[in-house]
Specification:
Length: 461
């Protein structure tokens, strides 16, 4: 990012190494989209060696992956590919996955896409879900039992996710990004079913690197609860080894059809392998990734005292310049999906009463309340390690965090201007029609609807 400078750091956390970049270098529908994407990513992880100065991609058709035996984690094995077909069979019948032809769908073969869409996009039917064995050996088998051996990561990553329902999808999410060096944290919606809560909490019991927060949150379509959940996760994992954290969320929205109140979900899908994320962390060093623009006046309380002194933002004001204490914070807006460095997060917890500013953004009835906190803390000059200097450009477009196709032509719903012919909240739904773009994208995540995500998971794995 030319022209943008970062503060030099002193006395950094010994656990978080600073590297210089090298100079040369519907329930079933949701899981289907995710699993297609998962197919590509798993193949990329284990069929390619990712150099430290770049992110390579390899397209592999899931039907060509050979069946191999389970192997212990971090032990040598001759297996180099994941059996995506067998993995899909954990969640779908052969009839349901009949047109899951990843080798044709990924390069955007029109006939294959039309055939898949015509016969119905894969989805998890609540009435036909398999009764998955929930003992730890069975769960671990589904998550990573058929993966090749893991190579140590230079820079471990933390992945934080808020969840509402569809446990099978959460397994798929975990599987697509799983590496024993990474850390995972889940925050559960209080409105989730007891079965969902029990199932997700089982992941905490079965994996040392998976944390499920005891506290539950009230997520809604306006973004409430996301910031508290993410920061509780960040606080919980501070003693773990990671260099960057990827913040992901479930977005709930309510629609009304024939007087029926329906709750829909969007999901963030990681479309990079653990090794690619580790390489990205090395390139980022101690910096973070997010976009920012001017905060929308109708999304926060403009009458509040937004000076650090007024909201008692600092734990100790000793040594903080008056200009910082008494200057009004510039409210910045971006996406909730960001990549933050541990250096930056540690400085936030050490220096700020973060609960106070979380409360200011979260405790109101505004829309999009989850899109301002991190961006505001990162852009304003607060003397935090790893934050962007205040003399940066006024606006900055995020070109790494989340792939998004904005579409403001006409109302939400059916539209011919999106490849998938459907949009929500002014965003094109990324279905099978976008698989090629997803696989070639530089972005780390993509936003998908619960009825389209499984095809992406399976194909990109």
């Amino acid at each position: 990012m030319p022209g943008i400078r970062y503060e030099k750091l002193q006395d950094l956390d010994d656990e978080t190494e600073i590297h210089q970049p090298k100079e040369t270098s519907s329930v079933r529908l949701s899981i289907v989209a995710f699993l297609l994407l998962f197919g590509f990513i798993s193949a990329t992880i284990f069929l390619t060696s990712v150099p430290s100065n770049g992110m390579s991609r390899t397209v592999i058709g899931s039907r060509s992956l050979e069946e191999t035996s389970q192997r212990p984690v971090l032990k040598s094995t001759s297996k180099s590919k994941r059996n995506i077909t067998r993995w899909v069979d954990y969640y779908f019948t052969q009839e349901e996955s009949e047109f899951l032809n990843c080798s044709a769908l990924l390069p955007a073969n029109k006939d294959s896409i039309d055939q898949y869409v015509t016969h119905g996009r894969m989805k998890l039917d609540k009435e036909r879900l398999f009764e998955l064995p929930m003992d730890c050996p069975s769960i671990r088998q589904r998550i990573h039992g058929d993966m090749p051996s893991f190579k140590p990561l230079k820079r471990p990553i933390a992945i934080l996710r808020t969840v509402y329902n569809i446990y099978e999808l959460q397994e798929a999410f975990l599987s697509i990004s799983y590496h024993p060096d990474n850390t995972f944290c889940f925050a559960i919606d209080s409105k989730s079913t007891e079965k969902m809560k029990t199932s997700v909490r089982k992941l905490d019991d079965c994996f040392e690197n998976v944390i499920v927060l005891e506290k539950e949150y009230n997520f809604d379509g306006k973004g409430h609860g996301q910031d508290p959940a993410h920061f509780d996760c960040l606080q919980r994992i501070m003693d773990r080894k990671w260099n960057h954290a990827v913040l992901l969320q479930v977005t709930l929205s309510t629609s009304f059809f024939s007087s029926l109140k329906l709750l829909f979900q969007n999901f963030d899908l990681v479309i990079k392998t653990p090794y690619q994320l580790s390489d990205l962390s090395e390139l980022l060093n101690y910096t973070s990734v997010m976009g920012f623009d001017f905060g929308f006046g109708d999304r926060y309380n403009q009458t509040a005292d937004w000076t650090p002194a007024g909201i008692k933002l600092f734990k100790s004001e000793t040594g903080v310049p008056d200009k910082i204490l008494h200057s009004k914070l510039r409210i910045r807006k971006g996406l909730n999906e960001v990549i933050v460095s541990k250096v930056f997060v540690k400085s936030i917890f050490e220096k700020l009463n973060v609960d106070r500013i979380i409360k200011l953004f979260n405790e109101n009835n505004y829309y999009g309340v989850d899109e301002m906190l991190i961006n505001t803390l990162y852009e304003n000059n607060l003397g935090l390690d790893g934050q962007l200097e205040a003399n940066c450009s006024r606006n900055h477009r995020d070109v790494l965090s989340r792939l998004t196709h904005w579409n403001y032509n006409g109302p939400n719903g059916f539209t011919r201007t999106c490849l998938s012919h459907f949009k929500r909240h002014g965003i094109c739904v990324l279905g099978v029609e976008y698989l090629k773009e997803l696989s070639e994208s530089n972005y780390v995540t993509g936003l998908l609807l619960e009825t389209t995500i499984y095809i992406s998971i399976f194909t990109l794995s």
